[in-house]
Design goal:
Length: 136
């Protein structure tokens, strides 16, 4: 009689894992669904097409930022600290000129922001953007 009671106790000591697995799978499905709705924060940038007008026309001041972060104005390389003075000098002859910043692929955002800030501080009425593609 004792053996029979001991055997029943051992059989009843098993843990049923089915409800725990159900809960785990429901949690997995929940996190997968929630993760699909999470959108990373950022800003959308509308870049102009290369087929549009050439930004190097005579009515705008062209600042070219190359892929190695070199800044070029009027066919000469300039330092980032002298961009503002150069733009002010060019705006003195025609204050209505727009500043066009042509950025090549691979240029650092820091250089682009510094040039745009310098153009605004120099008093440019409008700052335009153009994609420069790759190296020529």
């Amino acid at each position: 009689m004792r053996k029979l009671a001991k055997q029943k106790e051992e059989d009843g000591a098993e843990i049923d894992l089915t409800p725990m697995l159900d809960v785990v799978f429901i949690m997995l499905i929940f996190f997968i669904v929630v993760a699909s709705f999470i959108k990373e924060a950022g800003i959308e940038v509308n870049r102009p097409d290369n087929s549009k007008s050439d930004p190097s026309d005579a009515t705008s001041i062209l600042v070219n930022i190359r892929s190695d972060n070199q800044i070029w104005m009027e066919n000469r390389r300039v330092d980032v600290r002298s961009v503002r003075a150069n733009i002010q000098r060019l705006l003195a002859s025609d204050p209505e000129q727009a500043v066009t910043i042509k950025v090549e692929k691979g240029a650092r955002a820091n250089a682009v922001v510094n040039v745009a800030d310098a153009a605004r501080e120099a008093g440019a009425g409008s700052v335009n953007w153009a994609s420069g593609g790759g190296k020529k």
